[in-house]
Amino acid sequence: MKTFVDLSHLKRNNESYLSHLAFAFSIGVRLGAVASLFIIHSVLPWIIIPKSLNLEATENKIQAWNQYVDSRKESKEK
User: Fold this and answer.
1) Domain span at residue 61?
2) Into how many domains does the chain fold?
């Protein structure tokens, strides 16, 4: 019988529920804020996108998050 709660994702990524919650929540909030800002900018183009939230900064942040995820998986394999 398959259960509704599958914690294998947490085990595979070598993290606790709370660390996963904090990490995933922070990503969601950041990307939601960036998306909202770009939607506002599309309607009101005189609203400037700050450099810390522009596409290049967002790409760099996503790459950093990905490296962090990869490092957690690698540390478990050792």
Assistant:
1) 10-77
2) 1
